[in-house]
Structure formats: structure tokens, C-alpha cells
Amino acid sequence: MSTVATTPPGIVILGAPRSGTTLLRRLLDAHPNLACPPETYLLSACARFLHEETFAHGLRIGVLLGLGYAGIDEATTLARLRAFAFGLLQEHATAKGKPRWVEKTAFDAFHVKAIRTLCQGHVRFLCIQRHGLDVVLSLEELVKKTGGFVDELHTYIRRYPEPYEAFCRAWADVANDLADLVEADDMAMSIRYEDLVADPQATLRRVLDFVGEPWEQGLVERALNQTGSVGFGDWKTYAKSSIENTSVGRYKRLPTPVRNRLAGLCNPTLARLGYPEVAIEPEEDAEAARRRYELGLLLNRMKANKKSS
Amino acid sequence: MKQLTRQDLIGFLENHAREDLSEVRDDTELFSTGLVDSFAMIELLMFLEKYTGTRLGPEDIDLDNLDSIGRIIKYVDKRKAGK
């Protein structure tokens, strides 16, 4: 992918939640020219503002079309909205004494199409991808910790009551939207989480080159030593002062029947992104599946006994 | 059937827990500390049933039998001897 001559001030990080977006945010925020606040939800809010739906016999309704009938064309509305959103982000960067802004809110990735409508041609996109089944496991962990589903995930849970399937489908939709963006836009770059944690410096050098910023010696170390601003974002990364790759390939511990079922859902997207497909392995018979269930129950009892002792 | 060794057991658990267990001692608590998670423990229980040729009951699934490499090996030896 080629870099274009003009460098817009804004950079937008997009990636499925639990794909390393907060880690990338921390790394970029440590650069002297880049300011990335904790999650603002600004672009998701803009996406909701731009929401359109098809009504009745195919009539599209939404703010761009509605204002169009009032004589205000789409380009004007988008320019006003862009000026509002980008203006707030630039204000934050200026307050930090930095010339350029970076925006990252994990759940923005569920609004890629609307964010493209608003931002494409005016920002550089950094699209971070991660193996879908590792995302699934990490989303499960997120839901357990937080005790609920944000609206974007709940949409999938309503349609697919089995959480692993819901998360897998959510990941595939986001990953494909991001792949579409990178294929269509020279100002969009694809990064892999696995590369970022395996070699943060080399990956960050590529990212900085793409956004037109110089490499800074000691940048990774500085980023990890900064506690960062308090705000919304992934709680785990704030507790870490080193980059680990221990969560890569965690999906392999999933029981075979679960992994097999998810493989059917995620393999086409994994192949598109260049990941090896998840192998479909021979499944255990019904008796073994029942025994696995029973042993799970007994294990739970052991855990309960341990807590009460 | 060959003797279940410490190395066999660590290899099995590392494979399923996706953790580096090379540093664990025989008395390192595995499950109660979260070093080995529920997914891996269920795999271990399935494996132990197959290995010992016996069916584990509620009284067997106990931290006293399963929470460290030393306890697991001791439990398996006892189980096989009493089979």
C-alpha cells in the first residue's frame, strides 16, 4: 500500500474490541506528535447521527436524506459533523501540546460503514486485526468481568443466543468491514495484533511510517511506563508495563466440538485475513460429550467447595 | 499401560492450559491458583478416566487429588492400584 503525499492530522484506530486497540492507542499517545485520549465514543455517536434505515417500500430515511429535502446537501452536513468531531479531537491534541490527534474507541468498529462515510479521505485509518477465536475468548472474558453486553454485542446475542457464536459472528462482520476498508482506501493500513505483541518496535515503526511520523527511540518503553489518562478503555492494558504474547492462540484450549463449530463460522474470514484456518478435528461421541458435561458439573462443585472452605 | 510421569502430565497440561508450566514444582497449586483453568481441568479429568480405566466419582474430584502435579500422580497411582 502506498502512502499519499498529503498527511491529514487525524488518525483513526479501528479494530474489533479485544484486538489490541488500547495497546496501539497507548503506544501512539506516547509519541510527541500524537495525542490519543481515552475512548471518547465520538465517532460511534456520529455514526448513530448518520444512521439510516429502509422504511416501508424501500424508502431510505435518515438525517442526510432528511436534510437533503430541506435543501442542505449531504456533503455540507458531513462537513459540519466532521468539523464538530475533528474539532473536539484537535482541541484535546492542542491542549496536550501535540499537533495531531488519534481517535480510538473499541466499539467504533461496529460502525465502520458510517465512519467511512464521515472520515474517508480526511484521516488515516489504522485497522488492527486479531485471530477471531482469540477475540471470541477475550470478549467472553470481558462480558464476565463487566457483567453485561454493550449494545453492539447485545445485537448479536439477541440473534444468536449462544455467546461463542454471537461473538464469532460479531468478529467476522467487523473483520470483513475492516478488510473492505483497507482494500478500498490507500489511507488505511492493516496491522495484526499478533505482530504487534511479537515485535512491538518493528510494527510501530511501520505504523509511524504510514502515518508520516518519525520513529522515536525508546517510544515503546516510554508508552509502557506511562500510566495514561484515566478514562474509558481496556482495563487490562493499563495494568501492564510490558507487552506479552501469552494470549496468542488461546483459542486452542476450546473444547473440540466448540472449536469445530466456530471454525465453520470463522474460517472464511481467517483465510481472507491470511490467518491459518482452524482445523476441524474428529469429534467425540455423544457419550463422551455427556461425560464431559458431568465432569464440568463436578468440577464446579469442587470450586464451590474450595470457596466455602 | 506405561507409568504416568511428571513430564507427561506437565506436557498434557501445558498443551491444554496454554501456559508455560516448566517451572512448576510438584507441590505448586495449579487449579486453585488459576494456573490451570477449567477447560484444561476437564480435559485432564477425561484423560484420567481413560488412563486409569475407571470412572471418577464426586469424591475423587477434589483439590486434595488434583491441585498439584504431585497430588495427581499420587492419586493416579492409588487409583490404578485399587482398580
Protein described:
The complex is a heterodimer of chains A (309) and B (83). With 309 residues, chain A is of the alpha/beta class. Chain A has a domain at 10-137 and 177-256: P-loop containing nucleotide triphosphate hydrolases (Rossmann fold, 3-Layer(aba) Sandwich). Chain A has 14 helices and seven strands. The longest helix of chain A has 23 residues, at 286-308. In chain A, 35% of the residues are buried. Chain B is mainly alpha-helical. Chain B has a single domain (6-81), classed as ACP-like (Non-ribosomal Peptide Synthetase Peptidyl Carrier Protein, Chain A, Orthogonal Bundle). Chain B contains four helices and no strands. Chain B has helices spanning 6-17, 38-52, 63-66, 69-81. The model of chain B has no long low-confidence stretch (mean pLDDT 87). Classes of the chains: A alpha/beta (309), B mainly alpha (83). Chain A binds chain B through residues 246, 249-250, 252-255, 288, 291-292, 295-296, 298-299, 301-303, 305-306, and chain B through 16-19, 32, 37-43, 45-46, 49, 56, 58, 61-63, 66.
Give the mean pLDDT of chain B: 87
Strand content of chain A: 5-15%
Number of DSSP helical runs of chain A: 14
Shape of chain B: globular
End-to-end span of chain B in angstroms?
A: 13 Å
- Could you tell me how far the N terminus lies from the C terminus of chain A, measured between alpha carbons in angstroms? 60 Å
Strand order of the largest sheet of chain A: 2-5-1-6-7
Topology overview:
The complex is a heterodimer of chains A (309) and B (83).
Chain A: E1 10-15, H1 21-29, E2 34-35, H2 42-49, E3 52-55, E4 59-62, H3 63-69, H4 74-95, E5 100-104, H5 112-119, E6 123-129, H6 132-146, H7 151-159, H8 163-184, E7 188-192, H9 193-198, H10 200-211, H11 219-225, H12 235-238, H13 256-273, H14 286-308
Parallel strand pairs in A: 1-5, 1-6, 2-5, 6-7
Antiparallel strand pairs in A: 3-4
Helix pairs in contact in A: 1-11, 2-5, 6-8, 7-8, 8-13
Chain B: H1 6-17, H2 38-52, H3 63-66, H4 69-81
